[in-house]
Amino acid sequence: MTNEPQAPKKKFKMPSAYTILFFIIIIVAILSWIIPAGQYDTNKAGDIIAHTYHAVKSNPQGIWDVFAAPIYGMIGNDKTEGAISVSLFILAIGGFLGVVNQTKALDDGVATVVSKYKGKEKQLIPLLMILFALGGTTFGMSEETIAFYPLLIPVMIAVGFDSLVAIAIILIGSQIGCLASTVNPFATGVASQTLNISPGDGIISRVVLLVITTALGIFYVYHYASKVEKDPKNSLLYEQREEDLKRFNLSSRDENYQMTGRQKATLWIFGLTFFIMILGLIPWDTINKKWTFFVTITKKIQDIPVLGHLLGSNLVPFGSWYFTEITTLFLLGAVIVMFASRMSESAFIDSFMSGMSDFIGVAIIVAVARGIQIVMNDSNMTATVLHWGENGLSHLGSAVFIILVYIFYIPMSFLIPSTSGLAAATMGIIGPLGKFAGVAPSLVVTAYQSASGWVNLITPTSGVIMGALAIAHVNITVWWKFIFKLMVYLLITTIIFLAVMALI
Is 42 helix (H, G, I), strand (E, B) or coil? Predict the structure, then answer.
């Protein structure tokens, strides 16, 4: 009797975010045949009025509606705003980053900092973590960090630390920035646009959260590095230290990095572009009604003969910017980088299109996720779900609600690892529910992105985490052991922060 070789068992592979979101659209369409239809009355601003729910005629969704949902998710229809504005912004910022990366300004900038701190590498920990946190909080720095691991790992090993310190500086720094996103287009931007609020709403409180969590991360990594420096046996990677010294050929590293004048100019333009975006998004007059100077300045500029028309007849004052304005800003910023770096027209187009192509998946996923809201709104079931939530939240305080939202988004972030897809898929329901609990939509956005950023520090479905660990030859269980206490600290800190903000 012969034994035939058995075919190897196929390992389960988590489906992509596109597939998960499309299955959710199908499930929602099925539910549209079951859940009663209803509507709320709205005020002049379009906000729903509590306790005005009433039943309406049902409009169950069919097969054609399911496949049309992502299309309308992009362009919108009479009941739901499309994702075209935020998708165009994502593509524009992708093109901008592609042009900046073509100059190698970011890579060589970090390399120059590392080179200048030779012999004082411990001081690099707070400095670099702040820089990476700024990248995370402004443009969702994540995949871009992969280039820095091969640079920083040998440095940290050579001076007596280990590769975990290098991974932590980059990964914890950037993801804490994403956790406390201020204007991150893929988290704050998408979520805010879904709720029809400015990404600048709530920015002051998110800056406070950014400072607190970044300080916590720096202290944690610095403390571990000090322990390893004092006694190498305290390293979680002590057993592979000799192997790491051989693996990373330290003597072959070029430590004499020098930035060109054009690269320095590019970095200044890069930073200034994000600074202008923040100025444009902060709602100055809502912070203080007397802060109308940007409105006054813009009007005076437009009244100047010739110059006013030369600069543009549709100038929008800082504080009133939305996706059209910030998309225009990044397109302009990319062109300025081209001239400052003396990039050829063909190189500019190639790098801009390449940068856009890196983000086209994100732009499309936002539209697919918005398709869920299209199906719910077209079937008139959204108001019914909100009505159920209104009844359930009637006895909950604002602090309890925002904590539950944060906890809800932790497993959801595992299920839908795309931050932009998760925001577009869920904010249309969770945001309005917050109004019934007396919670501002901007705080709901903060809770969502805090949970998403927290999960992105440990999830094995993250290509950034697995890529970084592969470069460093570190098992993910070792990473989990290293970061466990910090995860607990961040969890508790964020919950307290959200509860306090809800009560203020």
Answer: strand
Q: Is residue 483 part of a domain?
A: yes
Is 325:189 a contact under the CB 8 Å cutoff? no
Distance between CA atoms of residues 30 and 155, nearest Å: 56
Domain tally, the chain = 1
- Determine contact, residues 216/482, Cβ cutoff 8 Å: no
In a domain, 415, yes or no: yes
Is residue 486 included in any domain, yes or no?
A: yes
Distance CA(281)–CA(318), nearest Å, equals 7
Alpha carbon 368 to its chain's center: 18
**Coil/strand/helix, residue 207:** helix
CA distances from 495 to 4, 51, 125, 209 (A): 57, 29, 26, 11
How many residues does this entry show for the chain? 504
The answer to whether 124 and 169 are in contact (CB under 8 A) is yes
**For the chain, first and last CA: distance in Å?**
77
pLDDT tens per residue across all 504 residues of the chain: 455 555 556 666 667 778 888 888 999 999 999 999 998 887 776 667 767 889 999 899 999 999 999 999 999 888 888 888 888 988 998 899 899 989 988 778 877 877 777 767 788 899 999 989 998 898 787 777 776 787 788 888 877 888 999 999 999 999 999 999 988 888 888 888 888 888 888 989 999 999 999 999 999 999 999 999 899 899 999 888 888 877 765 444 455 567 888 999 998 998 899 888 878 877 777 666 778 888 888 888 888 888 878 888 788 898 888 888 989 999 999 999 999 999 999 999 999 999 899 888 878 887 888 888 899 889 998 888 878 877 776 677 899 999 999 999 998 887 777 788 788 878 888 888 888 888 999 999 999 999 999 998 998 767 678 778 888 888 888 999 999 999 999 999 999 999 999 998
Prediction pTM value:
0.72
User: How far is 399 from 397, CA to CA, in rounded Å?
Assistant: 6
Q: Which two tokens stand for residue 405?
A: 């939202």
Q: Would residue 167 count as lying in a domain? A: yes
Nearest to 167 by CA among 76, 237, 102, 233: 237
Domain region containing 429: 163-222+380-504
Query: Is the four-CA dihedral 102, 136, 461, 150 of positive or negative sign?
Result: positive
